[in-house]
Amino acid sequence: MTPGNTTQEGCHFIDGLLAVPIEQLGAAMEATGANQSDRVFELLEGVDNAEAVAATIGLLDVDDPHVTAEELAGFEIPASPVHAVGFQGHTKAMSGTQPETAQISFPDVPRGGENNIVAVVDSGIAAELPPWMSVIHDPTDIEAPDNSYAVPTSHGTFVASLLRQISPNHVVSLAAARPDRGQLSPPPEDDGNPTNELEIAAAILRLIDRHWENPERVQALNISLGAYACHPESTAPDSYLLAMRVALDAWRQVFPYVPIFAAGGNSTSPDPVYPGAWRDLEDMHAVAASDEQREVVWDDSDVETAPPNPRFWITDGAVGSDVLGLSGQDASHTVKWSGSSFATAVATASWLKGENPTIADGIVWWPENVDGLYRV
């Protein structure tokens, strides 16, 4: 999978589908004459909570979702196409580096306990894990390493391994957001595929369903993904990434005090990366990869550089360069990887274990050296 739903040249979305808040679905249908869509069950085939998504996010069948979103803006009804959203740190748009094989044997750490949970939305988890990788998941959350990399790697497994090694008292509860299966328009022009907002929403809602009876056990949410606004020039209210926002609002209703750590992005663009840029969401952290307390990103040649302009949405910085984690190829294979995805996991785990950050220029900088973080 590749990160980001858009570049300067365009964006990817599900053609003919428009998202609106479920409580305004009737008004949107009346205003536009559009019909409620049941495509969610086709698009989320194989996901066991498609009905929960349909009950949370209103969907309309329309000819052109961008045109209809603008039309609904006149009625003050938020509406948005269902966009692609990607996992930061992958190839192509907003890339970090490619994973590279690295030799390390991670120590066994305590298995943690189910009273200390860090929730994770990511690409999935490998089937073969070492005993120390305490991960709560469903069978549908299993994924094979991504063969679009020169060294096949499971992004979610890598992220989960960072969380477990740095904060071993916490169990990872992971829900997978699957890659696009050909629904996006225009089709991504690369070897990997991003996911889409409905998959993100389904993952968030599965985590809610998994833990709502004991909300006090969930202590953080890690979302190592993000996207630009697809049409930032639009006059429609909330006219982008609405399905993902509705799902996060549902999360916040059940877990009102749980901090959310999201990838700040690896791009030099001044355009904000969501969900991290939703500063109105309580306790939202947008995490930049850092090196010696400066923000870093990577160019097309995998060269680390500092962004040329301040990124106003960034709230936190954490080590994201040359970190080591599991690839998911087997129970012991490890890789070196760089990107804000992994800085996000480092920041989340550092917060969980009570590390003391420093604050400079309004950014929370998590320590460069933290027990359980391995680098080369």
How would you concisely characterize the structure shown here?
By secondary structure, the protein is of the alpha/beta class. The chain has helices at 25-32, 40-43, 50-56, 65-73, 155-166, 197-211, 242-254, 340-352, and strands at residues 6-7, 10-11, 13-21, 35-36, 57-61, 80-85, 100-101, 113-122, 135-136, 170-176, 184-185, 195-196, 218-223, 260-263, 284-290, 297-298, 304-305, 316-319, 323-326, 334-337, 358-360, 363-365. The protein has eight helices and 22 strands.
Question: What does this molecule look like?
Answer:
With 376 residues, this protein is α/β, with parallel strands linked by helices. Helices cover 22% and strands 24% of the residues. The protein contains 8 helices and 22 strands. It has helices at residues 25-32, 40-43, 50-56, 65-73, 155-166, 197-211, 242-254, 340-352, and strands at 6-7, 10-11, 13-21, 35-36, 57-61, 80-85, 100-101, 113-122, 135-136, 170-176, 184-185, 195-196, 218-223, 260-263, 284-290, 297-298, 304-305, 316-319, 323-326, 334-337, 358-360, 363-365. The strands form 5 sheets. The protein has a 9-stranded mixed beta sheet. Strands 3, 4, 5, 6, 11 and 12 form a 6-stranded antiparallel beta sheet that branches. The protein has a 3-stranded antiparallel beta sheet with strand order 7-20-19. A hairpin with a 7-residue loop joins strand 19 (323-326) and strand 20. Helix 5 (155-166) packs parallel to helix 8 (340-352) and helix 6 (197-211) packs parallel to helix 7. It is globular. The two termini are 25 Å apart.
